[in-house]
Design goal:
This protein has helices at 49-60, 65-75; strands spanning 6-8, 16-21, 27-32, 38-43, 80-84. The chain is of the alpha+beta class. The protein has a 5-stranded antiparallel beta sheet, with helices on one face. The radius of gyration is 12 Å and the shape is globular.
Length: 85
């Protein structure tokens, strides 16, 4: 079975987190709050996809998705760089 690529907030919010492969083969993380904000980050390191999935799963379950996402990625030593708004 493959890894889950998208996650929606279970607490009734419209928060969305997902990861995807870009055309150049790099991994990107996407966040959308369902109203005004959409952010995209490129994973700077060659991170294990299972570790990215776990970080996204924990983050989207939190009420404060973005701060938790940054904490979870840092905890797993996954470097990111913002590429889109």
């Amino acid at each position: 079975m493959g890894l889950q690529t998208t996650f929606h907030a279970p607490h009734g919010g419209a928060d969305f987190l997902g990861w995807r492969k870009a055309r150049n083969g790099s991994t990107e993380i996407v966040y959308d709050d369902g109203v005004t904000r959409r952010m995209v980050w490129r994973v700077a390191s060659a991170a294990n996809e299972a570790r990215i999935v776990e970080a996204l799963r924990v983050s989207v379950s939190s009420l404060r998705v973005l701060p938790t996402l940054y904490d979870e990625l840092k905890k797993r030593a996954i470097a990111i760089e913002r590429v889109g708004v």
